[in-house]
Amino acid sequence: MATFAEYAALARQLADQRRETDRDAVAADRRRSALRATLEQLTRRLDAQSHRLDQLGRAAGVTAEPAPEPGTAGTGGAAAAPGRPGVGAYPQGATTTGAVVAVPTAAGVPAPRAGGVDPGTELAEARRLADETDRLIGLTEAVGRRPPLLPAWSPLARALAVYAACAAAGVVLAVVLLGVAGVVASPGAVYVATCGALPVLCFVAGYLVLGRWGRPALGADGPPPRFVPLGFVTCVLLMPLAYCGYLVLFRLLG
Predict the structure, then answer these.
(1) H/E/C letters for each residue in the chain?
(2) What residue segments make up the domains of the chain, in order of their start?
(3) Which of 17, 87, 187, 252 has the most Cβ atoms closer than 10 angstroms to its Cβ?
(4) How sure is the predictor about 240, in pLDDT bands with cuts at 50, 70 and 90?
């Protein structure tokens, strides 16, 4: 027959086990609460990222493909999830049988996890991917705030380069017109065209080029700076001077 001392020792052992179990339960509750809070934070962060990516897509003129309606694809009325190009749709298993269907893994996308993984590790990996997504979104926004034409240049330097290129093209065209003046027109008409109409056309061309390719896709509320006085001086004044200088040099050398 057990003695009182043995009963007391068993009671103390049971009490210690109970306290240890209570501590483990409290720690598990705290961990679940922390994981739930982290999950909610990541969910809000991913929602904000999705909204920002949608805005970037609309600004870039890219529209997302609509998701397939339930029951229109897949087997047994289940819709297949859209996959990346070259991979195809991600099949889903039937919900009634509970079968697990292998999902193809694309580059840069983590493979599906097996059962019994640590939720904390999974959330840490999700946070890392969210940080990488924020970095890529920042790079995309930085690129989108630059115009397609000469993005590393300042607006003044870009405008000067565009107008100078148009003026140079006008000088080349004027030389070509002068060469065929005896065939298609009189030299006087060619001089009038090259010193009057052609510089204006070069200025208009530079103005239109800056308006079309000098405006960034993001953060542009109004038209881009086109520096009209600079363009007028470059095309309408300097181009005829350069053309006349070419004629004088050609006659001196000839």
Answers:
(1) CCCHHHHHHHHHHHHHHHHHHHHHHHHHHHHHHHHHHHHHHHHHHHHHHHHHHHHHHHHHCCCCCCCCCCCCCCCCCCCCECCCCCCCCECCCCCCCCCCCCCCCCCCCCCCCCCCCCHHHHHHHHHHHHHHHHHHHHHHHHHHCCCCCCCCCCHHHHHHHHHHHHHHHHHHHHHHHHHCHHHHCCHHHHHHHHHHHHHHHHHHHHHHHHHHHCCCCCCCCCCCCCCHHHHHHHHHHHHHHHHHHHHHHHHHHC
(2) 1-59+120-144, 155-253
(3) 87
(4) confident
